[in-house]
Every structure is written in C-alpha cells, then in structure tokens.
Write a sequence for this structure.
C-alpha cells in the first residue's frame, strides 16, 4: 500500500520534471515544476515529516514559483520558437553522454540503496522541535550566514533595479519583485 | 481499512464539506440583503421567506449559462484554473480543530481531521496554492484585462502572505505549538486578570489587526479587490469566464473567506470554546435532550457544540467582510503595495519581536 503510493508520487514527480525541461511554453514548464514539488512534498509526508512537506509547499510552490509565473506573465515570455537541431553529431554525442550519465547514476544508487526498504522515518527525527534545535544549535553559524547572503542578494537586486532607467524604476512592481523573492525565502525560513 | 480513526476522519470531513459548501449560498443571500439594509433598500425579497431562495435562483442561473471558451485561449489551463483555486481553499479546513478530545464508542480522538504539530504550516501551505487559480485564469484567457488581473493577484497575494504569516506566528508563540488544537487549549486554560479568557485578541490586538487586513488582501475582498477591479479591468482575472466556471471562482473566494475567518476565530477568539462553559458538559447536555438522546452520544454532542460555536464565530467574521466591503473604497495599486511592504510587514515584525521578547521574559 505504502509502496504503491510512493511509486505513484515518484512517477508523477519524474514525469512532470521531464515536462519542465521539454515543454516549449514557459507557463506549462512552471506548472509542471509545481506538480513536481507538490509530489515531492507528498514523499516527505510518506517519510513521516509533514513539517518538511508543508515548508516545501509554502516556500517553493506558494512563493517562489508564483514569482516565476509573475515574471513570465509580466515580461510576456512567448513559446520557444527555435528550431530543433536534427541528426547532427551533437545530438548523437549528447545522447551517448546522457546514457552514460544515467547508467552511472543508476549504478551508484543501486549500489547504495538496493538493500534498503521504503519505510517512514522516526517522526521525532524530523519533527519541528528537532529541526529547530539543530538549526539554532549545531548549525547556527551556517544558518545566520545564509540569512546574510539573502540580505546581500536583496540589497544587490534593489541596487540593480534602481541603477537602470530612473523613469522605469518608478513603477511599483519593478523594484518589488526581486525583493519579494528573497525576503519570502528569508522570512519563511526564520 | 475502515478503522475507527478513518471513520472519525471521514465523518469530520463530511461535516466540514457540508458547512463549507453551504457558505456560498448563505453568503450570496447575505451579501445582497445586508448591504441593501445598510443602504436603506430592501434587496431581493420576493423568492421565499426573506428572499432566502434567491441563492437557489442564482445557482440555477449559473448552471444553465453557456460555457464559453474564448478564441485563442489556452484550453487546458482555462478549464483547470477555476478548480485549482476551489480545491486549494477546500483543503485547508483539515487542520482547524472544532472541539476537545472526545470519546465516541470507546475510541478517543481529537476533533480535527489531521492532528499534526505542523498544522498551522499546512494551512498556510495549502492556502498559498490558491493564487495559482487566479494567475492561470489570467494567463489562459487571452485577454489583457484578465492578464492584468492575474499579475496583480500574484504580486498582491505573495506580498500580503508575508504579513499574514508573521502575525500568525506571533499568535502561536504563547502556546508554543504549531498545532491549532494546542493554541485553542492554551486560550481556554489561561485567564487574564482573573476573569478574562486569555484569547489572543486581548494580548495581541495589533497582531489581530494585521491578520485581519492581510486576510482581506489574501481573499481579494474590497478594499483590496484590485485583481478584479471592475472600474479598471472589467472583471479582472475572471473577465472571460461564465456559467459554472465563474461560479467555481465565487465558491473558491467565499470558501477561502470562511476558512480564514475560522482561522481568525481559532487564533484570536478561542476557537470552538465559549468562556465559562465546559464543552464536554455542554455536549453531554445536548446529548441528553429529549428527541436526540437516542442517537447522540456525549462525544458527538461535544463535536456538534464545538462546531456550532466555531461556525457562529466564523459567520461573525464573514459579516465583517461584507460590512467592510460596503464601507471602504478600493485602494490604488501603489497604495496597496506600500501598505503591504512598508507598513504591515514592519508592524508585523515589530509585533512578533515584542511577543517573542515577552515570551522569553516569561510574561505570557
């Protein structure tokens, strides 16, 4: 039963991840990424951590990908129109590389996890309290460094936005969009 | 498969679905009659007692309207968009509690569908998916009004989600848990000045104000209904929709209003509790009433009591939604963004830091 749910979610996640790469329409790509992230959140629930699942949906699906869509719609990005290169040496070389890489990855995972069974982890190990203690205890320095990094990104983004045409930076959306992305990430994290 | 826990979860889901589906007709009626009286009119009063059947007529009208697909629209996304918002708003009730732990037929379970310590986060996560319905509707309609509405919706909802989340976090601090059942229990068992129930509205009035404003913006209600501003955008993201798909947008909006109202009641007004009344005693009393005593056990009586109390509080909130809608004019878009980022967000952070400091000092 559990394995069937896992398999369904995994297949949905992989198929929609492939659609993200292959689809010509950026809006469809973004929506496929939403499906990927939601089904990965489902995998977190199966592993016994509703907390991580909720965070995944809240941050990535609910905030960051909405901003992706916002930018795509604001810039009115059209369907990709470049012609596909057919049957050149490049395609053959890329195909060989892809097969080799896939083989290596499968071999690696097979060696590491072939004996493992799928089972929920101990709920305590990924509960809210445990994660909070780890983040604000053992990993306090990297945690604060990430906060600093995001702050730098926000400052840089607003500087870049204001450096351009001063007439354009008067529109309320333009400086807000990148700031929104970074501060959503830092706000949700703390 | 049908263990007692599963049966209880299904029964509670049924109760919630019944209540949430019925929010739309009740609100359709209320939103016509209440403003009519505010403006010294009568409102629709011909169909049934007090015009109550007007909602049925509205629904019939929606069902029999033609389902139009505009030329050049993205068919798949156009059909999908209304359901996305509808489903996202329909899922969030899962973590809202409506009673204490009860024992029915020998099995004890809490009166909430999913009892997890990530409850509040799950609520925020699921409700944040609702924006996709609006954005996709705006994109797929192939109309500039819809596109503008969709863009506005995405920017507005992401901006106000921050203030909403931080004010909600502050409300969770006193109980020290993300589980909404714990939040309600904390508000029941503590008392302020010896008599006042420790509802968060009394300890965090600023946080409640931020929550309320952000909730209006999150549900796109006036004065924040910029995504569908009819004086500028015809009808915004749902300009091209008609018939049942349009009705789905309506239902999604009313349901997310109702569920945010239930959340507000839970976080700030003691949820399913009534001061001075013990829910279990009230449940036992309901179950002992003459006509129903044969079918109701005290546990189910408690559930009904808690649910009714929560619904009364929810509808009080919903009335405030209507009241505000017919009182305030719409914001301009830059005013909306300034309010969200430069006023509400700093205030929410200030509130959160103050509450956290008080909690560390042991005052809450």
């Amino acid at each position: 039963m559990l394995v069937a749910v896992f398999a369904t979610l995994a297949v949905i996640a992989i198929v929609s991840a492939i659609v993200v790469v292959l689809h010509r329409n950026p809006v469809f790509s973004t929506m496929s990424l939403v499906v990927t992230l939601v089904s990965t959140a489902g995998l977190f629930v199966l592993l016994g951590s509703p907390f991580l699942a909720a965070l995944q949906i809240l941050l990535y699906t609910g905030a960051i990908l909405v901003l992706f869509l916002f930018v795509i719609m604001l810039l009115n990005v059209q369907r990709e129109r470049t012609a596909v290169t057919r049957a050149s040496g490049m395609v053959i070389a890329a195909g060989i590389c892809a097969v080799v890489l896939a083989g290596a990855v499968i071999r690696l995972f097979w060696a590491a996890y072939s004996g493992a069974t799928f089972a929920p982890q101990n709920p305590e190990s990924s509960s809210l309290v445990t994660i909070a203690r780890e983040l604000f205890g053992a990993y306090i320095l990297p945690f604060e460094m990430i906060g600093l990094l995001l702050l730098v990104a926000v400052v840089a983004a607003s500087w870049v936005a204001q450096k351009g045409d001063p007439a354009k930076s008067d529109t309320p959306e333009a400086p807000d969009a990148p700031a929104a992305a970074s501060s959503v990430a830092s706000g949700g994290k703390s | 498969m049908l263990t007692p826990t599963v049966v209880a979860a299904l029964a509670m889901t049924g109760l919630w679905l019944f209540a949430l589906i019925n929010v739309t007709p009740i609100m359709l009626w209320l939103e016509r009659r209440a403003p009519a009286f505010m403006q010294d009119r009568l409102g629709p009063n011909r169909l049934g007692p007090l015009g109550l059947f007007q909602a049925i007529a509205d629904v019939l009208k929606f069902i029999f309207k033609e389902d139009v697909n505009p030329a050049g629209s993205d068919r798949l996304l156009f059909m999908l968009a209304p359901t996305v918002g509808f489903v996202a708003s329909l899922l969030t009730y899962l973590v809202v509690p409506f009673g204490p732990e009860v024992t029915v037929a020998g099995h004890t379970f809490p009166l909430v569908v999913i009892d997890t310590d990530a409850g509040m986060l799950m609520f925020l996560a699921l409700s944040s998916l609702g924006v996709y319905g609006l954005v996709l509707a705006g994109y797929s309609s192939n109309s500039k009004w819809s596109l503008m509405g969709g863009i506005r919706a995405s920017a507005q909802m992401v901006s106000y989600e921050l203030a909403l989340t931080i004010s909600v976090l502050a409300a969770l601090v006193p109980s020290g848990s993300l589980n909404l059942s714990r939040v309600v229990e904390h508000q029941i068992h503590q008392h302020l000045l010896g008599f006042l129930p420790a509802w968060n509205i009394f300890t965090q009035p600023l946080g409640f104000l931020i929550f309320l404003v952000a909730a209006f913006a999150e549900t796109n209600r006036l004065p924040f209904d910029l995504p569908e501003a009819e004086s500028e955008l015809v009808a915004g993201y749902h300009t091209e929709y008609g018939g049942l798909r349009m009705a789905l947008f309506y239902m999604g909006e009313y349901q997310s209003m109702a569920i945010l109202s239930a959340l507000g009641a839970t976080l700030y007004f003691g949820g399913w509790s009534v001061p001075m009344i013990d829910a279990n005693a009230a449940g036992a009393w309901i179950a002992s009433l003459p006509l129903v005593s044969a079918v109701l056990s005290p546990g189910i009586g408690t559930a009904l009591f808690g649910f009714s109390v929560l619904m009364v509080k929810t509808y009080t909130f919903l009335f405030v939604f209507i009241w505000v809608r017919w009182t305030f004019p719409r914001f301009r878009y830059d005013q909306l963004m300034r309010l969200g980022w430069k006023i509400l967000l700093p205030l929410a952070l200030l509130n959160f830091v103050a509450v956290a400091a008080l909690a560390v000092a042991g005052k809450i």
